[in-house]
Structures are given as C-alpha cells and as structure tokens.
Amino acid sequence: MALRNIIKLPDPRLRLVSAPVQAVDDDLRRLVEDMFETMYDAPGIGLAAIQVGVPQRVVTLDLAKKDEPKDPRVFVNPEVLWRSDENATHEEGCLSIPEYYEEVERPAKVKVRHLDLDGKVQEIEAEGLLATCLQHEIDHLNGVLFIDYLSKLKRSMVIKRFTKAAKREAEEA
Ligand code: GNR
Ligand code: NI
C-alpha cells in the first residue's frame, strides 16, 4: 500500500478522458488499495483514479460517517444508465480543488452500471449524497470538474486562484 499524490487544479491531466479498464487483475487491485489509502488520508469521501494521475475508469467511495464502520466501495468502468428528471442541490468540494465549496445542482437519482473487483457486473440506483458523489466521480473520468457547473465568473476566479498558487509553489520549490 502506498499514498499517492493528488493532482490539483490547473493540472491539465484533470481534463483527460480516462480509458476503460481492460482487465480486473492484481494491478488494478493494487491501484484501488492505494486510492483508498490516499482518499482516507486526505480525507475525502470519493476519489477518481485520474486524481492520482492514472487515466483509467476507476472510482473509490466511502460515505460512512466518522462514528460508523468503514464502507469502502469500488466502481470500475461506471456508466450512468438513467438519471431522474428531478434535480437536487448539494454543496460539493473536490480534493483536486482544495478548500473550495459550492452548491451544485444535478439529477437527484441515477442508475449506474459498473464492474466490481471480481469483474462482475453490478447495477445500483443511488439518491442523496451517493448520487451526487457518483456523478462527481464519473465526471472526473470524463475530464469534467464541479466548477464547470458554476458561472463563468466563479469558474474563472477559482482557476485563476489555483493557477497563481501553483506558480508560487513552483517558484518556492
Ligand atoms: O471528498 C469529497 N467530498 C465531496 C462532497 C460533495 C460532493 C462531492 C464530493 S467528492 C470529494 C472528493 C473528490 O474530489 N472526489 O473526486
Ligand atoms: Ni473531485
């Protein structure tokens, strides 16, 4: 197991479209282990592989509260099969855009098909926070970030702030 570095805005890799996983094998299981370690350490409730620089369609999630037992979930090659017409608004954050939070409106419910770590096809219907997080993570696999749903002004201010911070860090290094 190893902690991996989480890439941050404006890293252009966040805009890549990740490739489908070809085989559910030990290499994939090692990546997933590292993703959980990295996600729990951050801490975050979800992580897409591209956030650790791996452009493959893999998502980890754990929505358990602090006082609850861990509930690690893995979604390989997730696909949205259905979205509700009804929308819901949730405050979102992203480990690749640290300490920035905004309300985002998305379909309230989604049906998602994916592979599990045994390579078996699974389908789930999600609502609430699970629906929000799954959509946030599947967006990452398509190079989409939650700031893309905000006004142009808000989005450009966030990108500017993180671009400046990255420049400053590069100069200090
Ligand atoms: O840790 C996270 N919290 C969160 C809160 C509301 C909506 C989505 C998320 S996902 C985020 C971790 C992350 O960046 N996943 O890509
Ligand atoms: Ni994110």
**CATH evolutionary superfamily:** Peptide deformylase
First-to-last CA distance? 27 Å
CATH-defined topology:
Peptide Deformylase
Low-confidence stretches: none
**CATH-defined architecture:** Alpha-Beta Complex
List the helices and strands in order.
HEEEEEEEHH
Bound molecules: ligand GNR, nickel (II) ion
Structural class: alpha+beta
Biggest pleated-sheet summary: 5 strands, antiparallel
Per DSSP, the total helix count is: 3
Domain module count: 1
Care to count the β-strands?
A: 7
Report on this structure.
This protein has one domain: Alpha-Beta Complex (Peptide Deformylase), CATH 3.90.45. The chain is built from three helices and seven strands. It has helices at 26-41, 128-141, 152-172, and strands spanning 46-48, 58-61, 73-83, 87-94, 97-107, 109-115, 121-127. Strand 4 and strand 5 (97-107) form a beta hairpin. The protein is globular and about 45 Å long. The model has no long low-confidence stretch (mean pLDDT 98). The site of ligand GNR has 17 residues, from strand 1, strand 4 and helix 2.
